[in-house]
Amino acid sequence: MSNPLDTDAGSELFASYEAELKLVQADLNQKLDQISELSGEPRKSAIRLAERTLDEANELLGQMRIEKQNIPSATRSKANQRFRNFESDVDGQKRKLKAMSDDRKALFGNRYSDNPNHDQQLEQRQQLLSGTERLDRSSQRLRESQRIAHETEGIGRDTLADLQLQRETIQHTRMNMLESEGYVDRSVKTLRGMARRMATNRIITIAIITVLVLLIIAVIYSKFH
Q1: Residue-wise pLDDT tens digits, 147-187
Q2: Where would I find the H helices in the chain?
Q3: Closest listed residue to residue 83, CA positions, set 100, 104, 101, 67
């Protein structure tokens, strides 16, 4: 089996896949042990379950193959060694499962015969079962893809709703700014009007004072002449 898990810095995700793969391998080993004790339809059912588990192990290996590239080069060699060990283990389990699948006598029980025609029928039946199993796996992947598509569509709708809300907020802010600019313009006009009135009042005041001064001068002049 593979080396014990030792999590290096930057390899948490790789380590999580590694731990999950160990559980899948243990489950696959248990299924392989059960297959050796079965025959006929129960054996075929057990083989199909083991094949699904093997597919899961291969998928985890694929994830580990990608993730180990993100591990720092200083610690990547240890991860590479563990990965090779896991890959070798899974390959051994795959060969063992294939050998069990090719054991026709155990697979078909008392119905097995050395008759060539019967062998051909059994081979066709086995191919049909294998095709059905592949179709089931494809259907499961299709359902998973549909689920992801629905989730993506939901996320898209939420994003559009957020963008619409942000657009309304921006428009509301723009309207507030335009309204504020209107207030500022009116205030400027009011201040200018007040300034003009003040200037007019000042001119009137100066004119009145000038007239009064002239009248006073005229009165004084008239008294002395």
Answers
A1: 888 888 888 888 888 899 999 999 988 888 888 888 888 88
A2: 12-35, 40-67, 73-102, 104-108, 116-224
A3: 67
